[in-house]
Specification:
- By secondary structure, this protein is an alpha/beta fold.
- The protein folds into 3 domains: 13-123, no CATH class; 156-214, no CATH class; 215-403, von Willebrand factor, type A domain (Rossmann fold), CATH 3.40.50.410.
- It is built from 12 helices and 13 strands.
- The strands form 4 sheets. The chain has a 6-stranded mixed sheet with strand order 8-7-6-9-12-13, with helices on both faces. The chain has a 3-stranded antiparallel sheet with strand order 3-5-4. It has a two-stranded antiparallel ribbon with strand order 1-2.
- The longest helix is centred in the middle third of the chain and has 18 residues, at 237-254.
- 34% of the residues are buried.
Length: 408
């Protein structure tokens, strides 16, 4: 009789690494903002393949990615085998579309020999979406479950989810007939049925059920990336990036009719795809809030949405202004009367365009508080003075609470 001997399947060690766990472990590296934290394991990180390989090596050595058996196998590998393992993990990340990676230039030698310093990588939309999901889950964890939906308004429209009332049918309405109301209209005109089973139904008898009109919303995240966001011994920019990614994931999954865009402001301002957020670093130095508001308005005008809002995350006083000839007027001390006046005029334009501005401040200087409160009062927005640690809770709670309230 033939015997079959079964042994424990160990498999390829690279398959023991969960890519989602690895991305989570590398999140600080992948979202690096240029802050030189002396306690960070990812020193002098950039978007080179060499930096990526080193970050993966440190994650593996931490002992948090592999189970006990796999960790024992890893610790027995020599240097060449570790490099081979890292190659396989990177290939898996590429195959599963978590990142795009360039190959080393011709003549550089094999990967893993330290010769791929000019080869670059970038996080894909799938990788960013996962990081956004993880950030959203972490931020909502302390809050608890919330019932998320679309944006309710005080207006009504013909739809499927009824609210108990009905109206005369008009061309273009959803043909969600209110049968009792329609028949009552016929009986009121014709009297009781005569037994023939024939009803003389006219166009004016048609009644459709009412539903709450739900509006779409365009959101622009106006993100301060001036140099102050990583000064004073604190990284304020990376938490802001995480929150923006979480907000993008929330809108994409819970409010599919909405749009979200990203505008960075520093010496000037620019509109960039939200997918490029992981690669954004701080700089240049100044804070051109007015130019950021101008770019945000242009984006919102082209959105075609009923509701428009700006979510501004900043820690600095307006300290720069784009002049009519394109030159940048700068005042490093901030709260320059010329800069403040032009910035508030831009806030006034937002108000006239029906754009709400909610500001999340990562600093609490007295003069800055006065400026932000004045700006918020002008556009009927809100100002939150928070910290990098509490920014996400404040912002997401504000975003969701406004969607549970009726709006005009």
């Amino acid at each position: 009789m033939k015997l079959t001997r079964y042994t424990k399947f160990t498999g390829d060690l690279s398959s023991s690494v969960g890519l989602e766990d690895l991305l989570q472990a590398l999140s600080d590296f992948l979202l690096d903002s240029g802050f030189q934290d002396p306690y960070s394991p990812f020193q002098n990180a950039d978007d080179s393949m060499e930096s990526l390989r080193e970050a993966i090596r440190q994650a593996l050595e931490s002992g948090e990615l592999l189970d006990e058996d796999a960790q024992e196998q890893f610790e027995k590998l020599d240097a060449a085998q570790v490099e081979e393992l890292i190659d396989k993990i990177i290939q898996r990340m590429k195959d599963e579309s978590y990142l795009n990676a360039e190959e080393p230039s011709e003549g550089q030698g094999a990967a893993g020999e330290g010769n791929d310093t000019d080869a670059k990588f970038e996080v894909t939309d799938k990788g960013m979406d996962f990081l956004g999901y993880k950030a959203l889950r972490d931020l909502l964890g302390p809050i608890g479950k919330s019932s998320l939906g679309r944006h309710d308004t005080r207006h009504e429209a013909a739809g499927v989810e009824t609210n108990g009332s009905s109206k005369l049918y008009e061309f273009g309405d959803s043909l969600n007939l209110d049968i009792p109301a329609t028949l009552n209209s016929v009986f009121a005109r014709e009297g009781p049925p005569d037994g023939s089973g024939v009803l003389n139904l006219e166009y004016g008898d048609l009644q459709v059920q009412q539903a709450d009109y739900q509006s779409s919303c365009a959101t622009v995240v106006l993100l301060d990336c001036s140099h102050s966001m990583i000064l004073y011994g604190e990284d304020r920019f990376t938490p802001a990036k995480r929150v923006a990614m979480a907000l993008a994931h929330l809108i994409r999954t819970q409010y599919p009719g909405d749009s979200i865009d990203l505008v960075l402001f520093h010496d000037s301002a620019e509109h960039i795809p939200i997918s490029q957020l992981p690669r954004v670093k701080v700089g240049p130095h100044y804070t051109n809030t007015r130019e950021g508001l101008r770019v945000a308005q242009r984006v919102l005008r082209g959105s075609g949405k009923d509701m428009k809002q700006i979510v501004m995350i900043t820690d600095g006083k307006p300290s720069a202004l784009t002049l009519d000839d394109g030159r940048i007027y700068k005042n490093a001390f901030g709260l320059d009367p010329i800069v403040i006046a032009e910035t508030l005029e831009e806030v006034s334009r937002c108000k006239r365009a029906g754009i709400m501005i909610n500001t999340f401040m990562l600093a609490n200087e007295f003069q800055l508080i006065q400026f932000v409160q004045k700006m918020s009062a002008m556009c009927r927005g809100k100002a939150y003075f928070t910290t990098p640690q509490t920014l996400g809770n404040y912002l997401l709670m504000d975003f969701m609470s406004r969607r549970s309230k009726q709006v005009n």
